[in-house]
C-alpha cells in the first residue's frame, strides 16, 4: 500500500530513484539463486581464498546438498543447525536447507559445547552441519539435544587445490594452519564429503517452500542476555533483500529477472549474525553479485584480496572501516573500487566515515536494525545526503512511530525523544516458543504489527532518526534519567581515554549510580592523570551533575559481541563481581 509523503515525511529525504514502497515477490529466498543460475550461469557467485564457484555450479552444489539432507531425513519444517565459519560450504548448506523446506538455525562456530547444546536444544534441531572443531564440541553434549545426526565439515576442502596441497607440506607453517582448520571428530560424527560422494540431486519437482513458511531461527541475546530465536519467514528475508536493493540501486536493472551485476561483495561479517547473513547470504545473491568469503576479519587478508579481486560493496562495523582505511594508506593499497560500505551494530563516528570516504571515494552509510527486523529497518541515503551518526531514514515500505517509553500507543510530540516502534514486511512474527516475550515485544496498532525496539530516539525535521539510548540500559539516578551513550560520547573525546562504557549499579537511595568503565589510551601517561575527579571535571562542561560518573573502573578492554558491539550488560556484571570479590 502506497502512503502519502505527508504521513512519511522521511521519504522526502530519499535518494533520487528510491521508491517509498516496494513489491515483495511471493517466492522463497531460494528463488533468487535459481534465477541467477539461469540468467548469469557463468558469473562467479563465490570466491573463497581464490577458489571460484559460478552461479551454475552453486545451484548444482545446493541441489546435491539438498539431496543429502533429505537422505538424512530432513523434511519441511525440520530445523537444521549450521555451525560454520564463512566459507563456500556455509552458503551451500544454507540454501540447501531452505530448498527442502527446512529451517536454518545459525550457530556461532566458536561457541562452547554448553552454549551450542543450549541453542541447538532450544531450537529442536534434528541435524547439525558443523565445522569439525564445532562438531566435536557439540558431540560432547549431543544427548542433551534432539540432534540425531552431526555432520562434520573439513574446511580445508573449500580451499583451492594448490592451497589444499600446501597444507600437507612438512613445514611448521603448514602444520599450524592444518591444525587451525581441522579437528579430530568422534566416530559418531558423519563426514560431509562422504555424504556428498553418494549424493543425488534433489529432483526439480521437489516442492519449494512457500513465502510464508519459516526459514530461519536467528538467535539474539538483546540486552537481557537470554538467547531467544527470532522467527523469520522467507517473506521477511526476501523483503529485506529487496529493500536493500531498492536502497542501494544495485544489481539487476529490473530488480530480479535480467542483466548481470558487476558488484563484488566482501563477506567479512560472520554469516551466523543477522547483519552478515542478510547482506551477504541473501542480498548479494539476489543482486547477482560475486560474494568474496573471508572465514574471519583480517586486515592483511582483505587488502591482499583487494589486489586480486577488487570489492565494490562492504558490509562492516565501524572498527573494520577504521582499520582498513588506515592500513590501506600505510601500505598504499587502492580501495577506490568500493562504492559503498554499509555499517551497523554501533554508531559510525564521523572521523571514521571521513577516513573511509577519503580512502575510497565512495560512501560510508550507516544502517540500523535488529535481528527481529531481518535485520535492516533504517539507513542513511546512499548519496551525499548521508548523515553519519544518525540511524538514517526508514527503509521503503517501512513505517515508524516514536512513542511514550511507558505507553507504546501514545505518540510523543515532534522533536521529542521516545521509543522507536517499527512496522514493515521485514518485521518478524515472534520468538520461538516464547509467547510471553513475543507479547511484550509486538503490539498491534490500527491493524498493523509493530515491534518495540527498546531504543530511545528523536526524529529531526528532515526525517532522519537519531539514537539517544536503549531503554533497558538507561540509568535512573535520583529520579533522573541518564542515557549512557551521551556520557560515553563525551568521555571518548577526553585525552587519555581510548574507550568507555557507562553502566548503572545499585546506588542506595539514588536508585542507581553512574559508573564509567574506561580503557586508557596507550599514550595516557602523556596527558593529565585520568581519575574520577578529572573525568567528572571533563563531563561537567556538557552534562548535568546527576549524569556525572560517581565511580571509575579502569579495564584493559571492553567485552564486545562477535561484531564488535560493547556489551554493557557484561561490563556491569564484571564490575559487580569484582566488588563482591573485594568485599570477601
TrEMBL record:
Transmembrane ranges, per UniProt, are none
Q: Where is the AMP-binding enzyme C-terminal domain?
A: 487-565
Gene Ontology molecular function: ligase activity, forming carbon-sulfur bonds
Domain AMP-dependent synthetase/ligase: from-to ranges: 34-432
Q: Which Pfam families match?
A: AMP-binding (PF00501), AMP-binding_C (PF13193)
Q: Which InterPro entries does the protein's record reference? A: AMP-bd_C, AMP-bd_C_sf, AMP-binding_CS, AMP-dep_synth/lig_dom, ANL_N_sf, ATP-dep_AMP-bd_enzyme
* Gene3D superfamilies attached to this UniProt entry: 3.30.300.30, N-terminal domain of ligase-like
Q: In terms of domain of life, where is this protein from?
A: Bacteria
> What protein am I looking at?
Long-chain acyl-CoA synthetase
Q: Which organism is it from?
A: Flavimobilis soli
Amino acid at each position: 500500500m502506497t502512503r502519502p509523503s505527508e504521513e512519511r515525511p522521511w521519504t522526502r529525504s530519499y535518494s533520487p530513484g528510491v521508491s517509498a514502497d516496494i513489491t515483495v515477490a511471493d517466492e522463497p529466498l531460494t528463488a533468487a539463486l535459481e534465477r541467477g543460475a539461469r540468467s548469469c550461469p557463468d558469473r562467479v557467485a563465490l570466491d573463497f581464498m581464490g577458489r571460484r564457484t559460478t552461479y551454475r555450479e552453486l545451484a548444482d552444489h545446493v541441489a546435491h546438498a539438498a539431496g543429502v539432507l533429505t537422505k538424512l531425513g530432513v523434511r519441511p519444517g525440520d530445523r537444521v543447525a549450521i555451525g560454520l565459519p564463512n566459507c563456500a560450504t556455509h552458503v551451500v548448506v544454507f540454501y540447501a536447507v531452505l530448498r527442502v523446506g527446512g529451517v536454518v538455525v545459525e550457530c556461532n562456530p566458536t561457541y562452547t559445547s554448553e552454549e551450542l547444546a543450549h541453542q541447538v536444544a532450544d531450537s529442536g534441531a534434528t541435524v547439525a552441519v558443523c565445522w569439525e572443531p564445532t562438531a566435536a564440541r557439540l558431540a560432547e553434549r549431543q544427548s542433551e539435544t534432539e540432534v540425531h545426526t552431526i555432520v562434520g565439515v573439513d574446511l580445508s576442502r573449500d580451499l583451492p587445490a594448490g592451497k589444499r596441497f600446501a597444507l600437507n607440506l612438512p613445514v611448521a607453517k603448514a602444520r599450524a594452519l592444518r591444525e587451525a582448520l581441522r579437528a579430530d571428530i568422534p566416530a559418531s560424527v558423519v563426514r560431509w564429503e562422504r555424504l556428498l560422494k553418494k549424493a543425488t540431486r534433489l529432483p526439480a519437482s521437489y516442492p519449494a517452500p512457500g513465502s510464508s513458511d519459516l526459514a530461519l531461527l536467528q538467535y539474539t541475546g538483546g540486552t537481557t542476555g537470554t538467547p531467544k530465536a527470532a522467527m523469520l519467514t522467507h517473506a521477511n528475508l526476501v523483503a529485506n533483500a529487496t529493500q536493500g536493493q531498492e536502497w542501494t540501486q544495485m544489481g539487476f536493472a529490473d530488480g530480479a529477472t535480467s542483466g548481470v551485476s558487476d558488484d563484488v561483495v566482501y563477506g567479512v561479517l560472520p554469516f551466523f549474525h543477522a547483519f552478515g547473513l542478510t547482506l551477504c547470504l541473501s542480498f548479494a545473491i539476489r543482486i547477482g553479485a560475486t560474494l568474496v568469503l573471508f572465514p574471519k576479519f583480517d586486515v592483511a587478508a582483505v587488502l591482499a584480496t583487494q589486489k586480486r579481486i577488487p570489492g565494490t560493496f562492504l558490509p562492516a562495523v565501524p572498527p573494520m572501516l577504521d582499520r582498513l582505511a588506515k592500513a590501506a594508506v600505510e601500505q598504499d593499497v587502492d580501495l577506490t573500487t568500493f562504492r559503498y560500505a554499509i555499517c551497523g551494530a554501533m554508531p559510525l563516528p564521523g572521523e571514521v566515515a571521513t577516513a573511509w570516504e577519503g580512502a575510497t571515494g565512495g560512501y560510508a552509510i550507516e544502517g540500523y536494525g535488529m535481528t527481529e527486523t531481518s535485520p535492516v529497518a533504517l539507513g542513511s541515503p546512499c548519496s551525499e545526503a548521508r548523515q553519519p551518526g544518525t540511524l538514517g531514514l526508514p527503509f521503503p515500505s517501512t513505517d515508524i512511530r516514536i512513542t511514550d517509553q511507558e505507553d507504546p500507543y501514545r505518540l510523543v510530540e515532534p522533536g521529542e525523544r521516545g521509543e522507536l516502534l517499527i512496522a514493515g514486511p521485514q518485521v518478524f512474527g515472534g520468538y520461538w516458543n516464547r509467547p510471553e516475550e513475543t507479547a511484550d515485544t509486538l503490539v498491534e496498532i490500527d491493524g498493523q504489527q509493530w515491534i518495540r525496539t527498546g531504543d530511545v530516539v528523536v526524529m529531526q525535521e528532515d526525517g532522519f532518526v537519531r539514537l539517544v539510548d536503549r531503554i533497558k540500559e538507561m540509568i535512573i539516578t535520583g529520579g533522573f534519567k541518564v542515557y549512557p551513550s551521551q556520557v560515553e560520547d563525551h568521555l571518548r573525546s577526553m585525552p587519555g581515554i581510548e574507550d568507555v562504557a557507562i553502566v548503572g549499579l545499585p546506588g542506595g537511595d539514588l536508585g542507581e549510580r553512574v559508573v564509567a568503565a574506561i580503557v586508557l589510551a596507550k599514550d595516557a601517561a602523556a596527558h593529565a592523570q585520568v581519575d574520577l575527579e578529572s573525568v567528572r571535571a571533563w563531563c561537567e562542561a556538557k552534562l548535568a551533575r546527576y549524569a556525572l560518573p560517581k565511580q571509575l573502573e579502569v579495564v584493559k578492554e571492553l567485552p564486545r559481541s562477535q561484531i564488535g558491539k560493547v556489551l554493557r550488560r557484561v561490563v556491569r556484571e564484571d564490575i559487580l563481581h569484582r566488588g563482591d570479590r573485594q568485599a570477601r
